[in-house]
Amino acid sequence: MNRFDDRRKNIRIDLGSINGFFRQCDIAASASEKDLDITILNISPDGMKFRINSGNDLKRLRLDDEIFIRGCIFNDNIGFLSSQKAVTVWQENTLFGAKFTPALELEAADLSEMIR
């Protein structure tokens, strides 16, 4: 089963045009007792690509970890992703991909509108 298939079918919204402060989140991971600080790089209704902001936090997150987004400032939409769950599905150095569980109840067009 290809775990990336669902997200690959969706348009991913690049968040590079948004100031980094407005795409930061605190997440809790099943393998860690402390919250981790991340920056979202792109997002789709099915998942997101994010960067771990601290080298110490990198040691606390692994593939297949369940994550819980505690607090998120998403382009000034405070609370947008709060309480969303996801699972990490890939990693490349400080970058991770996560699949939302369940998927967001938004379309890619709705996400694009939120970053304008």
Tell me what you see in this structure.
The structure is a single chain. With 116 residues, this protein is mainly beta. The protein has three helices and eight strands; from the N terminus they run αββββαββββα. A six-stranded antiparallel beta barrel has the order 2-3-4-8-7-5. Strand 2 and strand 3 form a beta hairpin. The longest helix has 7 residues. The chain is globular and about 35 Å long. The N terminus is likely disordered.
Please render the helix and strand layout as text:
Blueprint lengths: L4 H4 L4 E2 L9 E6 L5 E10 L2 E6 L2 H4 L7 E9 L2 E2 L6 E8 L2 E6 L7 H7 L2
Antiparallel strand pairs: 1-3, 2-3, 2-5, 3-4, 4-8, 5-6, 5-7, 7-8
Radius of gyration: 13 Å
General shape: globular
Number of H- or I-type helical stretches: 3
Q: Indicate the structural class.
A: mainly beta
- Our estimate of the beta-strand percent is 35-45%
Mean pLDDT: 80
Beginning-to-end CA distance, first to last residue: 36 Å
Question: Would you summarize the structure shown here?
Answer:
The protein contains three helices and eight strands; from the N terminus they run αββββαββββα. By secondary structure, it is mostly beta strands. Strand 5 and strand 6 (77-78) form a beta hairpin.
Task: Provide the descriptors you would attach to this structure in a database record.
6-stranded antiparallel β-barrel, disordered N terminus, globular, 8 strands
